[in-house]
Description:
Elements: H1 13-29, E1 48-53, H2 59-70, E2 74-79, H3 91-99, E3 104-108, H4 112-121, E4 126-128, H5 136-150, E5 158-162, H6 167-179, E6 182-186, H7 195-203, E7 208-211, H8 214-218, E8 223-226, H9 238-244, H10 251-254, E9 262-265, H11 277-280, H12 287-305
Parallel strand pairs: 1-2, 1-3, 3-4, 5-6, 5-8, 6-7, 8-9
Bound molecules: phosphoric acid mono(formamide)ester (CP) and norvaline (NVA).
Amino acid sequence: MMPHFLDLASARAPGLRAILDEAHRRKAARAGWSKGQVDADAPMAGHVLAMIFEKPSTRTRFSFDMAARQLGGSSIVTSAGDMQLGRGEPVADTARVLSRMVDVIMLRSNVHQTLEALAAAASVPVVNGLTDISHPCQVLADIMTYEERSGRPVAGSCWSYLGDGNNMANSLIEAASVLGFDLRLGVPHGYDPDAAVMATACARGGAIDIVRSATAAVEGADVVVTDTWISMGQADSKEKLAAMMPFQVTEALMAKAGPEALFLHCLPAHRGEEVTADVIDGPRSLIWDEAENRLHVQKAILLWCLDRL
Length: 309
Ligand code: CP
Ligand code: NVA
């Protein structure tokens, strides 16, 4: 089976654990190095990563590009609109052509099915760089950040997610079910995470609950996570913002979480909407470590895809 990295539900716990351990190890091994310096073993030497973006990106674009460089490989970055893909060339044909030229393909797509179609036709590994349904690379970086700061493995910890039941919520649900941590989602009616994602995770035995109160969602949590209320490609609506407002992460809400509760946000953030400035820019917030850890996790994901872990 081709080692695609499409979502966390299809991953196995030992594989995810190996990716996380590799990310921690490689980060520690290059502490103090300049950012362009190649890791001593250069395990991606001679390999090329292609990245295709159907929507904007800052962190995913730079972290994957730097990941390939630090591993001794190289990358090609393009937007779908600059490719024939943007003029209607089938994604399966694109997959077959790129598979003859590069070693790994990362796609950020509007619709999850595009990613699945790319993976189905590719003869090289395909990585999910965010779709409307999931954002698995980001959630692994979140977990790495929690483990790094707490000094504890994620298994057995208690996470709370507040706001829109979007791609981040879905990937957190999948991660909780595979890696064995508790997850409480505080989500308003009408904005639940994907029903199929939730059903699969619960069938797997995941300790995952959806609650309608922000206070109930954060009680005793080790980590509080939120994300934008309006994701890329979603319509902005006053009605949605009003429904989300009771789930805004404030200092008062953080005080109801565990005494050492940490705050995470994948970014970009909207201060005054999903989170107040005093929380996201305050002492419990790990957002800059979280953003940096995208790089370390992407390196480990690329090595997993290339069978080099
Ligand atoms: N968090 C994240 O994926 O950021 P970008 O959209 O900037 O890649
Ligand atoms: N849920 C957000 C995540 C951005 C990284 C979006 O899809 O826009």
